[in-house]
Write a sequence for this structure.
């Protein structure tokens, strides 16, 4: 973002940089006035008082509240996903190559740049991740079955739909892949999809409910 100087200051700076040919007194060419600029805070305060008086401020506050509530109740769907047409299974190696040193609070290097790190060497994916579209009844039913499966725990992750409504219905936490960052990292293109650990890899199953 560029910062533009006020015109009077810019003109003064330009004039000061020009060579002076002579110092003749030209007298008063016309009337002069002090430059008076309204204080920005005064302008804002005056505008807010006017908006409060006319009811415009309350209306805008209500509109903002409604937008926030709507964004929480029904977030924007993750782009680029579709209901599973052809089942697909693939594996992901989560190994990372550090692009910088990781240091502790004292500055000592814990992990050096260039080190290959597989998070699954240190932690396990204790629960399966179930990605699904909450607008599709079949996918919602599939997710419910996955949560109740004797195979182990599962974490429900919505890619579209209303997470708070499901939380009220299921009486449990429901997550939302806001912005689709998890789907992109995992390479998911179809839902429902189940992510589980397979040794030192992640297994992704795009399934048909």
């Amino acid at each position: 973002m560029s910062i533009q100087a006020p015109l009077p200051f810019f003109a003064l700076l330009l004039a000061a940089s020009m060579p002076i040919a002579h110092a003749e007194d030209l007298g008063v060419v016309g009337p002069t006035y002090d430059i008076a600029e309204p204080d920005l805070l005064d302008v804002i305060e005056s505008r807010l008082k006017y908006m409060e008086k006319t009811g415009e401020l309350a209306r805008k506050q209500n509109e903002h509240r409604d937008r926030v509530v709507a964004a929480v109740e029904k977030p924007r769907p993750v782009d680029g996903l579709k209901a599973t047409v052809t089942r697909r299974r693939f594996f992901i190696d989560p190994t990372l190559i550090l692009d910088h040193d990781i240091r502790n609070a004292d500055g000592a290097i814990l992990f050096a740049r260039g080190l290959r790190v597989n998070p699954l060497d240190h932690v396990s994916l204790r629960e399966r991740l179930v990605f699904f579209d909450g607008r599709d009844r079949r996918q919602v039913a599939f997710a419910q079955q996955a949560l109740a499966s004797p195979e182990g725990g599962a974490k429900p992750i919505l890619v579209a739909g209303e997470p708070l409504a499901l939380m009220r219905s299921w009486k449990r936490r429901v997550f939302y892949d806001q912005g689709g960052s998890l789907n992109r990292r995992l390479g998911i293109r179809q839902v429902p999809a189940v992510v589980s650990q397979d040794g030192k890899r992640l297994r992704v199953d795009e399934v048909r409910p």
